[in-house]
Task: structure prediction
Amino acid sequence: MGKSKSIVARVERAAIAAPLSDEAEVIKKAGIELMDIDAATEDEIIAKARDADVVFIVRTAFTRRVFENLPRLRAVIRCGVGYDNVDVDAATDNKVLVVNVPDFCFEEVSNHAIVLLIACAKKLVQLDHTLKTAGWKTSRQVLDPMGSIWGQTLGIVGCGNIGRMTARKARCFGLNVIGSDPYVDRKLASESGITLKSLPEVMGESDYVTLHPCLNRETFHLIGEKELALMKPSAYLINTSRGSIVDESALIRALQDKKIAGAGLDVFEKDPIDPDNPLLKMGHVIVTPHSASYCEASFKRLRTSVGEEAVRVALGRWPRNVVNSGVTPKVDLVKEG
Result:
């Protein structure tokens, strides 16, 4: 295959970037030049990615200024489901496609949400730690109070693909499932066993609340002091979506004041979390390091999908998953099928 004149670039700060592997194999096999750019600031991105036709990113922020100063750029691919580090409006204004991988990690994140729910309900981390450090008798004293899982109510905020998959799995444990999402198809929600209600109703009626919305201007701090005050004192909050869905300061106060029973958190407002964050000192809070999506197989699929989308755009084809689908591209792209 002849070498394409298009250039694809990974743009990421080298200190946090994983080695290129499956995505590089797909791109190079298609005869396309691949650059690995170490950049994080706007100035660095503009200076180093000027020749790129397609870029893919994980954490790097693509702002309006960046888009306005990369005239060759056709598409930016976010390696994952969320794209809150990309200014989609600015991309559209500058005729750049924003691409994501929406079928990534459904199973993994929904599994992680259920694991956190069960671990909170059964106080697994507290019991493990207390038994190992203080002995049998003291660990038994941690048991009360402990609610049930079977017959309890799970509230799902954000009933997209991951939220609905979480609902289907939750029903296997005998949980009744309610949910809040102003955009979900009611039939899809019903098929997954979700009874749709308002956000205040979900927060107030649930024994466990799990969060699954995308992060955007509308959902930033969707769960704040007012919403947390609606929760039962015996209820737990689970978050495997994005940290800024929750007003973290309000959550810390609710936990310190025992307004809710506890939380299971995979994401935080600042990622990585500060070592002195009070959430790390609370026995009734279970934390994991933004790892809900991870397993080797899922990340291999992700890298391959990113490479395939980059190749499609570089070779003049419309990608499979375009966030800003109404964008007018800089060059004509052939839509397949």
